[in-house]
Fold:
Amino acid sequence: MIKFTIFIFVFALVTLSFPLNAKETIVITGSSTIAPTLLDLAKLYEAKNKGVRIDVQTGGSSRGVADVRKDLAKIGMVSRALKADEKDLHAFTFATDGIAIIVHKTNSVSELTKEQIVDIYKGSITNWKVLGGADQKIVVVNKAEGRSTLELFIGFFGLKNSQIKADIVIGDNEQGIKTVSTNKNSIGYVSIGTAEYNASVGVPLKLLNFQGKSAKVENIKNGTYPLTRELNLITKLKPSGSIEGFIKFVLSPESTHVIKDHFFVPAY
Amino acid sequence: MYQLTKKNKDFILESVLTINGLFSAIAVGLIFIFVTRESLPAIHLKGWAFFIDKSWYPLEGQFNVLPMIAGTIFVSLGALILASPLGLFSAIFISFYAHGSLAWPFRRVVELYAGLPSVIFGFWGLMKLVPMLNEIRPPGQSLLAGILILALMIFPIITLNLMANFRPSSKKYYRVALSLGMRKSTYIWSILLPSLKQQIVGAMILALGRAMGETMAVLMVCGNIVKMPTSIFDPIRTLTANIALEMAYAMNEHRSALFFTGLILFLLIFVLISVADFWRRHESWKE
Amino acid sequence: MERMTKFLAWLSAGILLLILVLMVQDIFVNSLRHFDFSFLSQDPLSGGRKGGIFPIIISTLLILGVCMIVIVPMGLGTALFLSEYSDEHPKVVHIVRKALEILSGVPSIVFGLFGNALFCVFLGFGFSIWSGGLTLAIMSMPLFIRTVEEGIRTIPKNYRLVPLSLGLGRTTTIRSIIIPYALPFVIVGGVLSIGRSLAETAALIFTSGYVDRMPESLSDSGRALSIHIYDLTMNVPGGDTNAYKTAMVLIVLIFITNGLFTIVLKTWYKKRIIL
Structure:
């Protein structure tokens, strides 16, 4: 009896340890903004190409870069433009995303200038009254270190993270949405697609106009909204074989509906 | 011959079990070694900067962890202060005041509390509790929010531990006490609880350890600002939240610094257990 | 005093019940409104916003399976060692106890870091069900061992003395008397560890990973239920409804495991009275 149980255990372990049919596995790591989109694209691609398996892991853009460099991943996801010291990598821009400045729906302020945002985040404006809103203390929501949304934001406004006087630090986009939508006095910034979707399904949010442009996916498409970023796939070597196949697939019109489904603007 | 094989068998079993037992010790050693190994580069590079830097801005090379140590200690101690009476009284409720048909379902309630994933506590805290606190004093995500949520998460440890201890001692003396005309409360406060002093403190230590290690719920309700809190309405960041927030995005010395955060957490727990151990020995020596 | 105690006892019970009802009701109301059993059998789509959680349930079960395969023999062994050999090896037993105490206090996120460093990177398992299950096994080991050991300690002394006086060896005693006697506790310990593991997020996020697809082998990455809830609430726009549903599935699972625990204990107590 005992021997039989042990036998079953060992047998199950051995069989489960190795996949039945060895497939080519492509590991993709990087930006958590891109990861859900790529998960879906990977599934679509796998359905069409039976011999390939694509594993998507999250971890942030810089992680994507590092993993690709170290060959831990074949493809990296980077939700920003490549930096000067990353130009040796091959980048493929497949979509664009913007950053929306968001406040609670009940906030009467609906437009801010670049200078005002800088002042709010630096802590020189601390009350909504100054900006024409209610007499309430501003709750400043910032992103955690290492996120590319933060890098883009502070880069655009010429801030250093240590200058920002935040009241709340958040991780991913949805945490920002939930924080701002449950706090009447808060201001935060998240991916436009995410914000627009949430506002459209009734989450009490308001996307502020910025520099006279309303934060809409529309305005990213026509290039008038200033706060945008590219979503990239990167590889170390010039892609070939099934890696090339997958990247081509992501860049093809076949994938646009998935990208739109995740509220980004497809590049093709 | 038979005797010999029997002895051999016993010897083999003994060795196997001993080695097997040592695995736990090895595991602790491995955890310590691995976490230390990964944090060495940061310690090497930064050293005391971990305690004297201006604040925590890893991308600008600043790595002060003191506010986070304080945050962890404040939030878990606060939660313990709240959870202890809650745990104690709910244990008393189940064991003495709930009628038979009520005790069992309420026990399941406590067990469900113990089993709920911290993500669920955090989600509820973020969506319901934080907005309420924000009405009292912004930003809502604060030390207080963390304390309240953590208290709910750790009180079952105290309740369940105490109940397990109530049972054996109760049976012996409870009836005697009642037949002597003692009131329930007199029995509880002057006989039962004093006799369980060690177990109560033991359960509290366990709960405190759990509170210090809690991650996801705290991350969602505490605001995550790296700053010494000056009131319970201030946001804080705990050591655990720091790791969970930044680990996935960290590279090189930043990653190593986060492992160092983990090492501090490990050492804090170690100190806690040692203090508890010392206290226990001191107590039993007194007796 | 009597009134005060009674009042406080009822008060804390009332508060706790109220909060739990608020918390769970929120989840149940929001998920039952859209619940459909196909949720349990479908693949997640659109980052989990649409579709179901079938592969995630399977991954969770596989992770728990790996955890159990490791924990049952090793935990039982350690419990036997602690209860049967404390006279011969007092020093070793002391060290092991200390280690278990520390282990039970180590925060789950530190287990996550450790699991990532040891299993994923050092041993090269990568993000995989193996890494997740092994990390969980080490994490829930103390709970399992404590439960089993306490059970073994309730064995009446003459159960041990009789076989010895009959000239049976220790191995035989342990194998045919102590282990069968401890079996219900092994099950209880297993159930408790499963409960703890089901609720775990922090230790798994860096070890078993994020892939929300059906794992083809144990060396694939697989997403656990609690990580799915976390990702849906924190990272996927519009993921809340499915997060609620997943949370409900998880709560029901936990409730069932807890129930199992009570049933096992009860039947065992009954059996023992007959014994």
